Amino acid sequence: MTITTQENVNIKPDTKGGQNNKEGKKAKHVFEVSDLNLWYGSKQALYEVNMKVPENQVTAIIGPSGCGKSTYLKTLNRMVEMVPSVKTSGSIKYKGKEIFSESFGVEDLRTKVGMVFQKPNPFPKSIYDNVAYGPRIHGIKKKAQLDQIVEKSLRGAAIWDEVKDRLNEKAFGLSGGQQQRICIARALAIEPDVILMDEPTSALDPISTAKVEELVQELKKEYSIIIVTHNMQQAARISDKTAFFLNGDMIEFTDTDELFSNPSDKRTEDYITGRFG
Ligand SMILES: Nc1ncnc2c1ncn2[C@@H]1O[C@H](COP(=O)(O)OP(=O)(O)OP(=O)(O)O)[C@@H](O)[C@H]1O
Ligand SMILES: [Mg+2]
Question: For the chain, which domains are there?
């Protein structure tokens, strides 16, 4: 298959403390979403969404409750299809390849596009087994190799030092913020390219939230991140691009600084200034 759909875009110089070393370089898109519609039965939840998601950046999705943020996120790894009544139209290309085509196996897609949920959801297993779960499913059996993946993933999720002496204890025994980072480690262990995060800090205290936010900045060096958040300060702090959704429409998608300082749509302005509804 020829990959012809990726365009290059100019990335603005980094304004967020030097984490992004993309200055002067060209970036690609991990996802190119075109005219995406989605229905739950007869109820339409997404309307003609178009979006090019940049690689190695953080893309935030904001908007009021029920506007389709989670639906959209779960469409990107086809998890939304677990709801039997779901129908979609349009196109989503992941690195140039159509994810709705038969030739793109859904398991393959979910290996590339990992997900972290709002509520930390560790399995009722040890910390070690939570992180080793995905690699084991993918056929990795050697203890030494699993040890290595578990350590690397826990380090990647900035929780290694806190758990390295208790890897065989149940993950449920950790705090909520620690459990969320275990879930991030579990997502990293399958070596995805993209990490989808659906309100990953909404159940966390401010200190754990700050840790996850720092982690997101770190992770974007290696991964592309799409994060749903109700917290607009959080979107402004950690994301490079922001999309505003309303009633299933994507109203505006642009550089985060631009969206929050100079929104082009009145509805975006009303929402970000709290004058909504
Ligand atoms: N399984 C489902 N079956 C039918 N309708 C659904 C289902 N899941 C979501 N919806 C509907 O789709 C619309 C979008 O829901 P979604 O969960 O994507 O919103 P959201 O923006 O994530 O909201 P929140 O901020 O509250 O999490 C809503 O009207 C919702 O009721
Ligand atoms: Mg949601």
Answer: 55-73+113-272 (3.40.50.300)
